[in-house]
Write a structure and sequence with these properties.
Blueprint (H helix, E strand, L loop, with lengths): L1 H30 L5 H12 L2 H26 L15 H72 L2 H13 L3 H10 L2 H9 L4 H15 L5 H16 L3
Helix pairs in contact: 5-6, 5-7, 8-9
């Protein structure tokens, strides 16, 4: 408790001494003529306004002063006609100042238009890219849908051929080959069940049917990836065998 009392006494003593020192300093300032009420008010105003606000006010005042000076110079450059005429005419200096002012305004408008044009071009390019992306997605989805529909139709026709008697299915396949659709006929045969496919080949008994069966078997031995070229070769050979000169 005694220690705290001593510390408090020391702090209080220092505070009183500082207060006395400040009071003596202020009395010396006023007594020596270095401080009066006006200077004290100016000092208060200096610390009353923040630095940033003071800087912005100073810049605004300088700009206003520059504008006022320019306007004063423009007014001073006006040359009036002799007495009796109240219509002023612009001197070369006033015309030059007006031209410079219009040029600055034109450059500002041009820069703004350029910025707006660049922004419009960027937005237009983004919209075009988005449109192309959507169009590509639409085409891809339409292609996938068409492929799915073709697969469904192919499966339906294959099941229909399998449900028919072997002789009827054979006749349909012969007609398809005669119409130049041998590749489709091979695809149908490849998708059929082995038993149904065997029954169809067993129904081919005539000489022409046997030649066609041979061509179909050759095509079935070819992988589907290489079916296009092989089908052309088989078609040519079967045509020459079916229609001898």
């Amino acid at each position: 408790m005694d220690v705290m009392t001593k510390v408090w006494n020391i702090v209080a003593f220092l505070a009183v001494m500082n207060l006395i020192a400040v009071g003596c300093f202020m009395a010396w300032l006023f007594g020596s003529g270095r401080m009066d009420a006006e200077r004290l008010e100016r000092t208060r105003l200096i610390f009353h306004v923040p630095i940033e606000q003071e800087s912005s006010e100073r810049v605004a005042a300088e700009e206003a002063e520059a504008i006022a000076l320019e306007m004063a110079q423009e007014q001073a450059s006006l040359v009036r006609l002799p007495a009796g005429s109240n219509q002023p005419i612009d001197s070369l200096e006033a015309i030059e100042m007006h031209r410079q002012r219009m040029e600055r305004r034109f450059r500002s408008d041009l820069e703004r238009d350029r910025t707006e044009l660049l922004d419009f071009e960027r937005r237009l390019a983004a919209r075009e890219a988005d449109l192309k992306r959507r169009l590509s997605a639409f085409e891809a989805s339409r292609t996938d849908r068409r492929t799915a529909e073709e697969k469904i139709e192919f499966t339906r026709v294959t099941k229909l051929l399998e449900s028919l008697p072997a002789k009827s299915s054979k006749e349909y396949l012969v007609l398809m080959c005669g119409d130049g659709q041998m590749a489709d006929a091979v695809d149908y045969l490849r998708a059929m069940r082995p038993g149904t496919r065997t029954s169809i080949f067993a129904a081919m008994k005539s000489e022409e049917d046997m030649q066609l069966a041979s061509a179909l078997l050759k095509s079935l031995r070819v992988p589907p990836s290489a079916m296009d070229d092989a089908t052309e070769i088989v078609d040519a050979s079967s045509a020459s065998a079916t229609n001898p000169k």
